[in-house]
Amino acid sequence: KILIIGACGQIGVELTLALRKIYGGANVVASDLREEHELLKGTGPYVSLDVMNKEMLHVLVIRHNITQVYLLAAILSATGEKNPLLAWHINMQSLLNVLDIAKEENLDKVYWPSSIAVFGPNSPKENTPQHTTIEPATVYGISKFAGERWCEYYHRHYGVDVRSLRYPGLISYKSAPGGGTTDYAIEIFHDALEHKQYTCFLSENTYLPMMYMPDAIRATIELMEADQQQISVRSSYNLGAMSFSPSEIGNEIKKHVPAFVMDYAPDYRQQIADSWPKSIDDSQARADWGWKPEYDLPKMVKDMLEHL
Ligand code: VAH
Prior knowledge:
By secondary structure, this protein is α/β, with parallel strands linked by helices. Helix content is 42%, strand content 15%. The strands form four sheets. A six-stranded parallel beta sheet has the order 3-2-1-4-5-7, with helices on both faces. The chain has a three-stranded parallel beta sheet with strand order 6-8-12. A three-stranded mixed beta sheet has the order 9-11-13. Strand 1 (2-5), helix 1 and strand 2 (28-32) form a beta-alpha-beta unit. It binds (3R)-3-hydroxy-L-norvaline. (3R)-3-hydroxy-L-norvaline binds at residues 76-77, 115-117, 140, 168-170, 180-182. (3R)-3-hydroxy-L-norvaline is lined by residues 76-77, 115-117, 140, 168-170, 180-182.
């Protein structure tokens, strides 16, 4: 059975629904600190869980016969900069709790997301390679990079089959984002439809690697279903789909909402975005387990607006 930790978050809701469709609702236990998300109600078992409570997590894994854990709970980049030590503590201890229980209970597989946020100002900005200088400039990035090192350690020393993807900024409409720097690319849709206006907290030419949620969910499942010998990266795979700037997504939205206007008021999140790559080289993921994105900017904008 699968346990999803952080099932009510932006990724968690969609990953829970996708996994339940494949493996059956009863075989996917959803958990979060928060109460059950509307979209999850009636689709399978839900338990309240604080992943920082290792004993509680261990009991839950045994009681529900869990054999795979997806750990999605984390403090994201923007929120993390407001509370550095809390973000470090939560992002690291939650992962260590899961990895150690995976070792003790000999779990089949573990999934844990990293991020392009591991790259810092000294990494190549264009087509950032899988292996390169990695000097994260945010607490979130530091915790994700350290987490990647721990994943590789637990795989090498204890044989834990933990797999990971460095997600770009993710755009979705089913569940609210959780305090990320790329959240502008979600807010812009809601404001375009409600107010036909959006004030962006990043400057107009801030290019960032981005991906539509359906691609991210499919990548996660394809990675987790790959044979072990296909996996050559046990830290975290670079994963890419597209890159765009606020003005580019604004212009694409304007094709559907002609009255839409946009202005810019960069805030503290501009420095975070400026420390990240503009585009990602994900050739290792394509070579190892056949990764291929399906959504580009026009296709994503059309789908987002149709659903919203
Ligand atoms: C964030 N959405 O902004 C996350 C992600 C690459 C961005 O890690 O913090």
